[in-house]
Amino acid sequence: MGTTLAMGLWLAEEPLGAGALANTTSDVTGLVNALIVLLLMATVVALITRRLRIPYVVGLVLAGLSITQSVLPESVGLNPEIILNLFLPILIFEAAINTDISRLRSTIKLIALIAGPGVLLAAMITAAILQWGLGLATITAAAIGVILTITDTVSVIAAFRTVPVPPRLATIVEGESLLNDGTALVLLGLITTVHTQGSFTVGEGLQQIVIAFVGGGVLGLGLGYLCVGLFQQLDDALSNILLTVAVSLGTFQIGHEIGVSSAIAVVVAGLVIGELGFRQTSASTKVTLLNFWEYAGFGVNTFIFLLVGIEVDPEVLLQTIPAALFAVLAYQTGRVLTTYPLLYLLRFFDRPLPLRWQHVLILGNVKGSLSMALALSLPTDLPGRSQVIALVFSTVLVSLVGQGLTLPWLVKRLRLTIPSATRQHLETLQLNLIAAKAGQQELAALLQSGSLPKNLYEELFAAYQAQIASADRELRDFYNQRPLDDNAHLEDQSHLDGLRRRLYLAEKGAVNDALRKGLLSEETSQSYVRALNEKLLALKDD
After folding, report:
1. Inter-CA distances, 95 with 285, 286, 397, Å
2. Hey, what's the torsion of the CAs at 198, 200, 204, 208, to 10 degrees?
3. What angle do CA 299, 184, 319 make, to 5 degrees?
4. Single pTM value for the model
């Protein structure tokens, strides 16, 4: 992955001729030296941000601002092609395989609402405000409006790690970011088509949107299930890593070639692999895969945000700060005027979202590297393109630093969750139970492969079984005892609601699968599913 990151930093794409061969070695040496300096700087930033308790990505951007482009090789910088075709698939796939699909199912209506119509309406409002306030051309304002509707999940999740938030809210934020990236890319493609062709009909636009989303979903399902089938034949961590890298990057490129949404395809493929593929592997292989993709996502984000700061000229930043502040006001206005009304309508066909959670969706509307990459990828003949790039870069900087630093404080002030000693004790018991059962599964795999003698297997298995029995006994006693106060009762009820939600979703999935296979009648299965939906709606948010 270090080599991949180095490739992402290398912008020079000149072919090697006889005269250029002598300069290649010095170029590569300079690139490696620059890479080492950036890695050391990122390490120092990580230490400082941890000590100061500020988001890591904000520290990277501020550190990048302190570096002038002149001290680095000319080949080092942000390349939109590299970001869109290499870094973006890695980030999307890493987020998708770590997404809890059972919880995502319970929030899909909400996510689809704010990541579909919400993005479109917010982009239109933002574009109208920018056109009115900054005097931009219509096509230019439309492009900026779409670019500034993309939410940077990395910054938001980094804030969530410092302040506890409900798991369902974190799932909503992650799921929305996964889908709104795809929506924004499709809309920006339509705007580019309008600019290139000069005319466009609503029917053609709707046709392209349907093809992009449906085609991307079908492509992601196909390649995801293909990867799952290969997982059944392999249980080697290194081979599976290569397979997942090939699927993530290959899915994105195939989607681009056939004209469907590459981002949606990668999302669907990642969800399928994360949900079904990892079931076909041993516990150690799964841990290795997740660790690799966590490192890949972390490394990609490290270089992107560091380069964001390096690419921005401080003088240009100072000149464009007033326009950037206006742009922040514009996209936040678009977010407010779409999110609150749409989530109010949500209560008529799904569980309503608590108002404090809606505030987090507004406050967490932070911009990031993808917005900058899309700005760099705009057509060269777009009116005011250079000013657009400077405006977007400055807006991203203001958003990352301003919103990124204040978001943890604001989320903490909302008091979304109040951890208790009871909940912490319960999580400790669950941790022991989950870890011990995972160890037993790995022991069984080692015994079956002949890597472990049976006597040692039985000894280690018994030790894990004792740990399981102890945790299970304490959990049983915990659930059997009566809570002594209302707060403990609410804490216990919230946890039980979370468990019931997972069970109801599992039942619903099994019934729907049996219906598709013709094992159940439509009338019987639908009545049972409706009863399950009513039970899900009755559960409180966790």
Report:
1. 18, 15, 23
2. 60
3. 75
4. 0.72
